[in-house]
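Bug report (template v2)

What were you trying to do?
Predict the complex of my protein with zinc ion.

What happened?
Run completed; filing so the output is reviewed.

Input:
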Amino acid sequence: MIKTERVLHLKSCRGRKVRVVREHYLRERVPCYSALCQAGCDHREGKVLPADLTHYVVPDVGVVVDYLEVLEVRELQGVVFTQTACQALQHSKGRRQYNRLRNLLKDPRHDCVLFANEFQEYSYCPREKGERQEKWQTRCVYSAAVWYYNHLAGVKDVVMLTEDQEAVAQYGSLNSGVYVISVRDFLQNFWPELHAAHELYSSVSLALQEKESEAPERQYAEHLPAELLEAGIKSGRYIQGTLNVSKHRALSEASITAEGLSSKNSDLSWSVLVSGAKNRNRAVHGDLVAVELLPKSEWRGKDTALAEGRGEEPSGEGDRKPMATGRVVGILQRNWRDYVVTFPPREGPQPQTRKSQRILAVPWDHRIPKIRVSTQQADALQDHRVVVRMDSWESSSLYPNGHSVRVLGRAGELETEVQTVLVENCIHVPPFSEAQLREMPVNSPERPWAVDPVQAAQRRDLRASHLVFSIDPPGCEDVDDTLSVQRLNGGATLELGVHIADVTHFVSEGSLTDLEARTRATTYYLADRRYDMLPAVLSGDLCSLLGGVDRYAMSVMWELDAQTLAVESVWYGRTVVRSSYKLHYELAQALLDGQRAEVPELAGLGAEEQGGRLARLADALETLTRVARHLRAQRDRGGALELEGVEVRAQLDEERNITALVPRQPLEVHETVAECMIYANHWVARKIQEAFPHQALLRRHPPPRQEFFSQLVDTAAARGFTVDTSTNKALADSLDLAVDPRDPLVNRLLRIMATTAMSQAVYFSTGLQAQDQFYHYGLALDRYTHFTSPIRRYADIVVHRLLAAAIAVDRGSEPGGAVASNKDLEETAHHINNKNQAAQQAQKLSTELFQCLYFKERDPQSDQRCVADAVIYSIRDNGVLAFVPEYGVKGPVYMKNREGQVVAVGEDGRCEWQSGAVRRHPDHITTSSSCGSATFRLFDHITVRISVRSTLCHADALSLEVVSNGPHRRTAAAAEPQPARSQGRSSSQLVREVVRLAEEASQQAQEKAARRPKLSREEREFSQTKTPNLYSLLEEVRELALLDPEAASRLCATTA
Ligand SMILES: [Zn+2]
């Protein structure tokens, strides 16, 4: 080892120049991480570049700093990042960008490695006197590239990338074996077909050129340096928080949710208003900022009127009293993501130039400011949706600068809009890669999959001994869970079993499949499709506990006292099962009710045998029902003081309310299956929490904030009901009583409001919370987790691994690597929580997309389907909020329009616009005009016309206009017999119809232009199922249609 000195010239935060001398050690052996290594480098840690690449690429500092995202393109393999470039990136671009590079280096899906060139004796070059830093860095990288070439004995081509033309000339002429070329030449010569990388490169380089030519006129105040911000936050002068821009008044109104408010500011509420663009000072929605409070005389209030053109405000009723107001003084962390923008149509003839133009593109998300994008394809991109990234926002620029990443398609087309929803929610679901699919087990007619005898010997074999069956929605392909129940000890003991697909047997920790599943965190259900978390061979086949085939399972089995149903013992472990029956809910219920039912598995058997088996199955179902009723009652009783399962109740009560509309009984068997799953999740939570008190993944549901209930309480009071929200049980009981016999919708709306007021259930690591915080409010359980759906939730995969480790510990072995630290687990939990939220949001947006596409096809003036019954559920300053049960649509209905006209009601109840005035009261709103006055009360039924408000740059939105102040009565011709589950039915019909129309339109377009068929269809085959199982169509869409989407998504999130 050689010791030298290294002189560094650094800049301090205040801008002072500092000279630092560091001892620097050089070694002869620094690993190269290449599979071609002949020198025996130590590669035990880290990735290794495969031997079969055509070349290795060594980017210099400038390329890594400016073009990292081009190097991230997955096809570009064999990249060697030098230590010199990494350090320069960290220094010039900050932590966020540096972490991005570190993640890239860690990700096994990318073939790239880090070479510690400055520690390598023969590749390190000391800086020469007077040598400019950039020149020296380039020399270091070149020297590293040459070392690489020689180290691998010249068997692999090495390409050094640099944007410095002098360096190309200087080093390119040396005969060292290393090619030195620019990024553009590299892409053209080595990757001529990789258009995505070419386009990304041009757009990034355009953005860089534009940045240089910026005019220096100041538009905004400068941001304070990081150390001043930090000190100011510590002393309480500044408040730190995440900027949240108002959806409805994006230009003027934003607020920050303060984090860790200092006690000196205890008189502040938890949010600070930031009003106007100057005060927002270039902060973008989602950024972590520091805010300074303005003098009290400049404080303002939030606007509570319905904003024209947008949906409703969240909670926060009627007060326009001034609140703490501040201005942004600095940005602690940018949280920029990929944004979808639209290139607006351009007026007038455009000059036909090939030169680049700067276009102000409009983000799809209202909360994001316009982004200035330089492009050479301004004409081609008109009316298109494009993914862009923001690069910078200087104080001299009114708008941020960005560059385009890829084109999604023409605005308004179904596929473009669905992709937009995904990008906007940071959902990235590429087809599963070849390498990932190679990890998968094979199950084909030629090579059928079979139970491995070694595995069979290690597992408890239930195939012959237990009657195992599944109950799911009809058509379910991915069967996560199965059940068994039988009598032991001559009937004194009952054995209940829950058997879950053993996904972790096939998905080992750290494999490519595991990483992809972790990244996705969940299966994504959109209105017309789904994106699976796991490849189809697992989710639809080998992990799916289908009938009549051997499968691996992870089981929980309880021995219960047959009389009291008290738990005598619990067994956890891996098993082999063979499900005898794949039942669907209706069939199971029919068997329970003793009705004649065709069980497909029994077809073709003799009458006697059939009868015997049927009796055994029915007996098992009955026993199961009895156990589930008991478990349910136990949880309900959980003591009058303890809380009980409101969410599950709410969901089931929703079912009961449908009954009120449509005569149809909810199936008890739904509840039975759900109860068994809740029980298994609860017992697994106990097991892993006891085994790993500080590092188990559980799920908690915090009690709701009382102030969120105010709308519910006030609204109920308007109908004379008292809703008691003091405890969960009181809430459940008082909601049960708030029933108007003449109008079942009243109770339903109140329940929707109650659900909306609930908090989200979240995953967490037990090391981070005190045990009294583990409580699941909704289910009234002290500990809860997710164990029963590992095919479509990554949390369950983590929990399966923890359970396996806990079982290993019981047997006296080591838990193995499966147990992550508290910190890592909390990070995982945070990631999964975020992805779940994104999944819910995407589902909601895609449902709204389909609703809009459905109505877009119809003329609201003549089409009867555009007129519907609506119920008023909230009163606002200039209108009301109404719910349209038929379509599951919620939205504002204006009583006063922009021209100042108000809704006037004629003799027959018909409404028209007249000049006049509106007046808001707590439970009603009154309009007065020359026609007299009209009143709209909470829970009044009105008739609305539904139309689509189209805006090119944003999502379409439905608009509701009152046409009559009475309930909607269908004319005899239009009245159709209401099918059971009318809402759900109409909603999935709606999806089908929209898909059909879109397919027709795209077919016509294809025939017309004779274009090549889109690649995406084939691509999609690998990553998703085009025809969703009924789970998504019936269950999910039905819930969304029944409830308002927000409430529904909360329900999905909070229930078991
Ligand atoms: Zn080596």
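What did the reviewer find?
The longest strand covers residues 567-584. The chain is about 35% helix and 25% strand.
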